[in-house]
Specification:
Layout lengths: L14 H4 L5 H9 L5 H17 L1 H12 L3 H20 L3 H8 L12 E3 L2 E5 L4 H14 L2 E5 L6 H13 L5 E4 L5 H4 L2 E5 L11 E4 L5 E6 L5 H13 L11 E5 L3 H15 L2 H6 L5 H6 L6 E7 L2 E6 L5 H4 L6 E7 L2 H12 L4 E7 L2 H10 L2 E6 L30 E3 L8 H6 L9 H8 L15 H31 L1
Parallel strand pairs: 2-3, 2-5, 3-4, 5-6, 7-8, 7-12, 8-11, 10-11, 12-13
Antiparallel strand pairs: 1-14, 9-10
Helix pairs in contact: 3-5, 3-7, 3-8, 4-5, 5-7, 10-11
């Protein structure tokens, strides 16, 4: 035998090969599976939670200053971040992980076996929750993590860099102030909260499109006061910067006047008294007199937010993204009118979220007719207003914003032969059961329709239209025959 020493893959000398690459320690940890250890994941999540608690006052103050949140809003955003970490920590269990790992040893199938994707590269927008939420999810799944945090003048960004460096292991976590080369990114799963298109061949991308728009609908049977309260809170709360605040509200003309009334009531109640006194609130006569030649009416305005009614449907404000502080009202004469207008406005861009204030039947019709990623009926969740957009490949989870499964791949382990394999065996040519099994696949497909079944919404509409047409023809025929008899 030769004197060569053959090394297993885990023992390969990778240090020299990785030195010229960005984040060599991350690459080595990924090869050695360092981040997959259950105890490592638990320890890192505990440390992250404890470090954020340590700097609670600094975090809340930074959120207030950078994003113009009220003290209560800043505390809510901070606490929501801790909630994400807690949920992910509870999902990591040593006993459960060990039980799953031993299923094959016990000759049991493990069809939902999942493994980490490897390295997760996070490109956040801004804010504590935008950064920590994907970090906690990727960490709970057992991945190495790189977060892109460019140097800025914001207090939150600086605090995040210091907090993460103190809490996280340098072997499995890193912060990048610049974008690494495409060769490194191609080996990562990229989490993008921006519209930036990366020219990489990354195996998977978790994308949160911030450009998709958000609409609200107030139907004629809606609780108008509830709608006004939710919409004003969403658009004007949290520094008037929420990515899920509705940009345009389509209000049925039958309740438009009442909606404006409640809108002003809620608007006034939200403002500090000194600001409310300083702001001139338009009355009914003032609203009509403030119409501009371009079809825009400035209904309400105040510190950081304004409400504008659009009367001309060709107005460019409807078709372009408005400022975060602007809420646009548009009158519609029916649900179909609102659906058509919203579809024309968003085009191929899609709708990030739609909020329907309507009766259950109308809300169901609206939500099934519009291509919205998320639909909410008669409420706007408070937790939705903080943090990044929900990823397009997510199941719509609000808390945590990034479910752990987004950072895992399914690698099933199957021990037991399938029913087909069991019945036919491995030698199909010699199987006596093949003909019987083939006949079973050729059996006619039975219908589950029963006599007198309930027709759906669209079928009912067709039946109604046909009935009206037939009734009209019968009526004309009867009247015609009577007239002919009288003329005779």
């Amino acid at each position: 035998m030769s004197g060569k020493k053959y090394l297993r893959p885990m023992e390969m000398p990778v240090k020299a090969a990785q030195e010229s690459r960005p984040f060599p320690r991350i690459s080595i940890a990924n090869i050695e599976w360092s981040a997959r250890s259950v105890r490592h994941r638990q320890q890192q999540l505990r440390q992250l939670h404890a470090t954020l608690l340590k700097y609670k006052d600094e975090c809340v103050q930074a959120i207030e200053e950078d994003f113009r949140y009220t003290p209560n809003e800043a505390l809510f955003a901070y606490s929501l971040t801790l909630k994400d970490i807690r949920i992910h920590y509870d999902s990591v269990s040593l006993s459960e992980e060990n039980a799953k790992a031993r299923k094959v040893e016990q000759e049991q199938d493990n069809p939902v076996r999942s493994v980490p994707v490897g390295i997760v590269y996070i490109i956040p927008t801004a804010g504590l929750h935008c950064v920590i939420s994907p970090v906690a999810a990727a960490l709970a799944a057992g991945n190495c993590i790189v977060v892109e945090l460019p140097r800025t003048t914001g207090h939150t960004n600086s605090l995040l860099q210091n907090t993460l460096r103190e809490a996280m292991s340098n072997d499995t976590f890193a912060i990048s102030t610049t974008r690494p080369d495409t060769a490194f990114l191609a080996e990562c799963q990229i989490v993008s909260q921006t519209d930036l298109v990366l020219g990489t061949s990354a195996p998977r991308t978790v994308f949160s499109p911030p450009a998709a728009r958000c609409f609200a609908f107030v139907d004629r049977e809606a609780d108008v006061q509830l709608a006004a309260r939710n919409i004003v809170h969403a658009r004007c709360g949290f520094g008037a910067r929420s990515l899920y605040a509705p940009e345009i509200v389509f209000v049925h003309e039958a309740v438009l006047k009442l909606f404006k009334y409640y809108l002003e009531q809620v608007w006034t109640a939200r403002r500090p008294q000194k600001q409310a006194d300083a702001r001139k609130l338009p009355g009914k006569s003032e609203i009509s007199s403030r119409s501009s030649p371009d079809g825009l009416i400035n209904l309400l305005s105040g510190p950081g937010c304004e409400v504008i009614e659009v009367q001309d449907r060709n107005e460019k404000m409807l078709f372009s993204h408005t400022d975060y502080s602007t809420l646009v009202l548009c009158s519609i004469d029916s649900t179909d009118d609102g659906i058509d207008l919203a579809t024309d406005i968003c085009g191929n861009e899609g709708i990030a979220a739609a909020f329907f204030f309507a009766s259950p039947s109308a809300a169901n019709y609206l939500s099934t007719s519009l291509n919205a990623h998320l639909s909410f009926i008669n409420h706007i969740p408070t937790e939705l207003l903080v943090g990044p957009r929900i990823p397009t490949n997510s199941d719509g989870s609000l808390v945590p914003r990034y479910p752990r499964h987004l950072f895992e791949e399914t690698h099933p382990q199957i021990c037991k032969p399938s029913e087909i394999t069991t019945s036919l065996g491995t030698q199909i040519e010699n199987s006596g059961n093949l003909e019987a099994w083939a006949r079973s696949t050729a059996k006619p497909l039975l219908s589950d329709e029963l006599p007198g079944r309930r027709v759906d919404f669209f079928e009912q509409a067709l039946i109604t239209a046909a009935s009206v047409s037939v009734l009209s023809l019968v009526t004309v025929g009867v009247l015609g025959s009577i007239l002919v008899r009288r003329l005779r």
